[in-house]
Specification:
The chain has twelve helices and seven strands. By secondary structure, the chain is of the alpha+beta class. It has a domain at 1-83: Conserved hypothetical protein from pyrococcus furiosus pfu- 392566-001, ParB domain. It has a four-stranded mixed beta sheet with strand order 1-4-2-3. It has a three-stranded antiparallel beta sheet with strand order 5-6-7. The longest helix has 28 residues, at 103-130. It is globular. 28% of the residues are buried.
C-alpha cells in the first residue's frame, strides 16, 4: 500500500476532521486508561503525534480531546493514501498490531478488513476496465483470494477470515440501529458468541431488532430447562455451545459472572483452532485472555 509519512507539524484543532465512521470502529478505552493517558500527557507531553489522512484523524482521538481541553500544542503527521478504503485498512491494521485486543475485537477487525479489501478490489476492477490511466498508477486486483491473503497476513485460516467477515457484518448491522449495543459487544459488556453473530449475519432486519431489544432489556441470555445457556431471539434459539455450563448465576458475585463469560469466549476461541496448527492465533487468544483477567483483577 503506497503511503508516505511526513514529519510532524503543529496543527490547529480546527483543521482536524474527526470522521464519525472511523471513530466508531475504534476500541473504547476504560476510564482508568483515559485518566492514565491524561496524566502521562500532562507530565511528559504528548510523545506520539496524531496521524492524519487528508486532515481526517486516523489515530489519536483520545489524545486530541485531552490536548484541546488543556490548550496544549497538537503535533500531527500525515499519510499519503489513495482512497478512503485504504485509509480504513491502515486504521484496522494499526489497531490490530498496536493494541491488546479481545478475541471478539480481533475477529471484528479482521472481518472489517476483509470487507474493505473486497471493496478496494471491486473498485480496482472498475478502474482497470474503463480507465485509460497508465498501468503503474492503477491498483491491480490480486491473484490470490482475499480470504487467503488476509489469512496469511494475520496467520489464521481462510475459514477464520470468512467467519470473521460474518461476525463483522452482524456487529455493523447492530451498530446501524444501536451504536451503544455495538460498543458493548466489542468491549465485552454484552456477551454474545461469534457463532451467534455468524447466524445473525444472515438474519432479517426484524431478527436484528429483536436481538438488540433483548440485549437492552436484559433478556437476551436465558437459561433453558436443561441448564444450558441459549439466546432467545426472533430467528430461533441459538445454543452457545456451552451445554456443560449448568451453574446457576443467581447468587454469584458480578466478577464471577464476568469471569465466566470471558472464559466461555476464550474457550470458544480455542476450540476454533483445536484441530489446526495455528499456534500464533492460539497464543494471541491466550494473550487476550490474560489481559482480560488482569483488567478484571484490577476492578475487584
Amino acid at each position: 500500500m503506497p503511503q508516505e509519512l511526513i514529519y510532524y507539524i503543529i496543527t490547529e484543532a480546527s483543521d482536524i476532521i474527526v470522521d464519525e465512521e472511523f471513530k466508531r470502529i475504534l476500541p473504547v478505552r476504560s476510564k482508568s486508561e483515559l485518566e492514565g493517558l491524561e496524566n502521562s500527557i500532562l507530565k511528559y507531553g504528548c510523545i506520539e503525534p496524531l496521524i492524519l489522512w487528508e486532515n481526517i484523524l486516523l489515530d489519536g482521538h483520545n489524545r486530541l480531546k485531552i490536548l484541546m481541553e488543556h490548550g496544549l500544542p497538537i503535533k500531527t503527521v500525515s499519510l499519503e493514501l489513495r482512497s478512503r478504503e485504504e485509509a480504513l485498512v491502515w486504521l484496522i491494521d494499526f489497531q490490530i498490531t498496536r493494541r491488546n485486543l479481545t478475541p471478539m475485537q480481533l475477529s471484528y477487525y479482521r472481518g472489517l478488513h476483509y470487507h474493505t479489501e473486497k471493496k478496494i478490489i471491486s473498485n480496482a476492477v472498475g478502474i482497470n476496465q474503463f480507465s485509460e490511466v497508465e498501468e503503474h498508477n492503477v491498483p491491480q486486483p490480486p491473484k490470490q483470494s482475499t480470504a487467503a491473503r488476509l489469512a496469511d497476513h494475520y496467520n489464521v485460516s481462510s475459514m477464520t477470515i470468512k467467519r470473521d467477515a460474518q461476525v463483522a457484518t452482524a456487529i455493523n448491522t447492530i451498530g446501524e440501529t444501536s451504536p451503544e449495543t455495538k460498543t458493548d459487544i466489542l468491549s465485552g459488556v454484552t456477551h454474545i458468541t461469534k457463532k451467534q453473530l455468524k447466524e445473525l449475519s444472515s438474519g432479517t432486519a426484524e431478527d436484528v431488532s429483536t436481538v438488540i431489544a433483548e440485549i437492552q432489556d436484559g433478556s437476551f441470555i436465558s437459561r433453558k430447562p436443561g441448564g444450558s445457556n441459549a439466546v432467545v431471539s426472533g430467528f430461533g434459539t441459538l445454543n452457545d455451545g456451552n451445554s456443560d455450563d449448568k451453574q446457576d448465576t443467581t447468587d454469584m458475585q458480578p466478577w464471577e459472572i464476568e469471569f465466566g463469560k470471558m472464559t466461555d469466549e476464550f474457550r470458544n476461541e480455542l476450540r476454533s483452532h483445536a484441530k489446526t496448527e495455528d499456534t500464533a492465533s492460539v497464543r494471541s487468544a491466550f494473550r487476550s485472555y490474560i489481559v482480560m483477567l488482569e483488567e478484571l483483577y484490577d476492578r475487584i
